[in-house]
């Protein structure tokens, strides 16, 4: 592998040397510009950053619940998308101790949640570089007092509950904190012995204990959106095995919720296997769920390990969070305004689960919602354009799901379910927009569907 890559690099260097030789252009300082402070989502102008694409995160944290001190070293590997004189990372709080780029000390400055890094040497377009940030402090969660609720790294008496949608990854590691940039992750989490650390993907080796502290290593080898990263810490009872379909399965429950663990384990297994028959092969290496005692007031579809914040999850919410593994986590949005592609799909999956169980048809659920009076707030909020100040509005969920049901009615079951599978397959590990979904629906059905999507997604009134 290594030899191959060196060989490739040598060929690339040779080719570019040859290409440059005749022109004999001196490389100009103007070729290197500051990376933009935002990735280009106008609804969240400061989220993410421009000028590079992350290809890997290595997040190493040491956390002490008693003092809430977090000491972190995050190493990001990225590829430049233009020549960079400086670039930004998103980081909220903490004292930054040092930053290196390609192992050379870099200068840095901070403004709000923007960490600007100026490498000793500018980075050329297309170059791969690593940036290593050492930082420490008491994490401060995001969103307090906003209608998003509290999110990010949330300290609990025995550890932490880490659920970061929409932009709370920066509350615990420096990141390109926007769903448009996904990358695999390695985690190394050190905690006092007796505390369990649960992160995404699968555990690497066995935890090691030295000097009263235990280090857990986890790896999510598939691309992951930053808000889905978790390092949920505390006392947990675990149940491990695999689903009947053969997918590794891990359920974890805080001591206050251990009565849920068997149900969480078996329901997560059954539903993961079932969704694989409906949506296509499971996109990740493991499944499961974590119930913590932190009353977040919501759940999060953290990749491979949905988090349930302070309640006993029922089948409906488990069906929702596991459907997100396909819709949201594997197939991800490029911009927040398209959030219905996550939440509408996961909510429709709840309806499909009830239909599968024989408790209620999706048609009956649809009708129940559709009967709501014209003045109901769900009709005022067009779910195809999620609002930055009210991202998780009920309309994005329920009216988003109704949109899918209206589509199913229009194209028939056979085309509709083929479309769901095709959508998940064509964009596996990738990014999508609403227009792409409409395009695929029209292509697969052979029908003109703009009026349907316009009425359900974009009009501030109750569709007929
Ligand atoms: N995606 C989550 C779900 O639908 C909701 C996350 C809500 N986040 C928040 N900060 N309120 O299950
Ligand atoms: Zn959801």
How would you describe the overall organization of this protein?
The structure is a single chain. This protein is of the alpha+beta class and 464 residues long. The chain folds into two domains: 2-323, tricorn interacting facor f3 domain (Immunoglobulin-like), CATH 2.60.40; 339-458, Orthogonal Bundle (Neutral Protease, domain 2). The protein has helices at residues 2-23, 261-279, 315-323, 340-357, 362-370, 377-380, 394-411, 413-426, 434-445, 450-458; strands spanning 33-34, 52-64, 69-80, 84-90, 95-101, 104-105, 107-111, 114-118, 128-137, 152-156, 159-163, 183-192, 196-199, 202-203, 208-210, 213-224, 231-234, 237-242, 248-253, 287-292, 299-300, 307-309, 332-333, 431-432. Strands 2, 3, 5, 6, 9, 12, 14, 15 and 16 form a nine-stranded mixed beta sheet that branches. A five-stranded mixed beta sheet has the order 18-19-20-22-21, with helices on one face. A hairpin with a 2-residue loop joins strand 15 and strand 16 (213-224). The structure holds arginine and zinc ion.
Q: Name the CATH homologous superfamily of the largest domain.
A: tricorn interacting facor f3 domain
**β content, as a range?**
25-35%
**Helicity level:** 25-40%
CATH topology of the largest domain: Immunoglobulin-like
Shape: globular
The overall strand count is 24
Largest sheet: 9 strands, mixed
Report Rg: 23 Å
Count of spatially separate domains: 2
Instruction: Determine and state the CATH class of the largest domain.
Output: Mainly Beta
**What is the average of the pLDDT values?**
94
Heteromolecules bound: arginine, zinc ion
Number of distinct helices: 10
The CATH architecture of the largest domain can be named as: Sandwich
Which structural category do the helix and sheet elements fall into? alpha+beta
Q: How widely separated are the two ends?
A: 59 Å
